[in-house]
Design goal:
- By secondary structure, the chain is α/β, with parallel strands linked by helices.
- The protein folds into four domains: about 150 residues, PAS domain (Beta-Lactamase); about 110 residues, Beta-Lactamase; about 120 residues, Rossmann fold (3-Layer(aba) Sandwich); about 70 residues, Winged helix-like DNA-binding domain superfamily/Winged helix DNA-binding domain (Arc Repressor Mutant, subunit A).
- It has 19 helices and 15 strands.
- The strands form three sheets. Strands 2-1-5-4-3 form a five-stranded antiparallel beta sheet, with helices on both faces.
- α11 packs parallel to α12.
- The longest helix is centred in the N-terminal third of the chain and has 24 residues.
Length: about 500
Amino acid sequence: MVQELRPTAAREGSEALCSDDDGPARDTSEWRRFADALRSSEARLRAATELVGIGIYSWNPDTGSLEWDERLRAMWGLPADTPVDMTLFEAGIHPDDRQPVRDAIARCVDPRGDGSYNVEYRVIGKEDGITRRIATSGRTSFTDGRAVGFIGAAIDVTAQRRAEAAIRASEAQFRSFAAHSSNLIWIGDPVAGAIIYRSAAYERIWGVPCQEAASDFAEWMKDVHPEDRPQVGHALAAVKAGDVVQFEYRIVRPRDGAMRWLRDTSFPIFDDAGAVTRIGGITEDLTQDDVRHVYVVSGKAAEARKLSALVRALGYRGRTFDSGSAFLDMAPVLSPGCVLLDLRKGRDEGLSVPRELRARAITIPTIALDMAGADVTCAVSAMKAGAVDYILAGDEASMRASLAGAIAECQASARAPTRDENASARIARLTPREREVLVGLVDGGTNKIIGQKLGISPRTVELHRAQVMNRLNANSLTELLQLALAAGITPASGEGGEQRGVT
């Protein structure tokens, strides 16, 4: 610690300033101004260090003597009057951090350098046993190429590092969740008009790898079905304004031209000042896939290509993975299908695939493919691991039958909803007012009559009616009524009769 500048020292310094050959006749105002400035500077330094919790210290490289202030002693878990030396200093440093500290000290006293000292390390308090993280900086002074003095400052950054670690853990948890979600999770920057994050499900829904996706919202909008772009644009504008919006729309996949139905729940992300700095969304794919996917898992690239070609020749969509772990990383977001697992290389890793699928409750049937001549114990171990079938290489007839059985099992579990189920699901997402308008239309009411019953204007009824048709994707009133009837909404039995149907 730099020695405190007491009034006596100030007086001695000021007397030195005013003593010269002319004697005491010099005006003493000069040394008084100096003393006042010295006391003011010292007060400001104390206030600044106390405000941010900085500990001040000094070190003599020649003698090794240390001087610490009370705050630095507290960081080492020491009482304010504890004598300090280099042995006590080093003993408090965490054993794993001592060598980096020694290296930093050696660099700062090397006259070939600039004398700077910047290091962060852990300290275990001598009295309280608390582990703290200390960040410290300082500088060495040199005379004739020799280190003659050092002064530094240290601060306890334990709380800051814990907060940073918590943020990193939270981010890791979010990314892990997003990576294994079957729904697409996305985050956008409304000011820049850019999408800054997409989860792995994007590739399955859009048919394009995330790294190749458009980052600009305007470019992304080109994939939205032309008839749905105005609705999507209005919804995103509402989210940017601070609303939570759920909407459905279609996209035309850029590579294969396939159309998919999506439902998006979008929401604003506010900063501490209440401003919308980010927007996010969870996108669910409502499209019912044709379940004919076969995922080939093989550690041999040449064999993977052969199996994939055979799968496609049998009329299935094939996709290869070079390891079981690569497949399991993508399994949660893959379309329904089955796994053709090549056990001829890496049997142990291969059998981990059906075990992990079962442990994660992912319903993708696994067919184990083994080398010709494998004994029955291999088949037993594969079936115990969770494979639904076991076949040998070269037996194309067995492979054809096994694939057909596994795909049939997938198709049974992924039964497409009936028209009634689709209609009920869509109507269930209407707002209460929109549902009331739909009921009025089913009863045969005009905009004016419905408005009178609900206490709203005919123009408002017309707006709700247009929104209902948009939400239910109905192109005419007749189609709208057919959807309502399919969902179980029937006309009232008479004046004042009870309306039946979905609620």
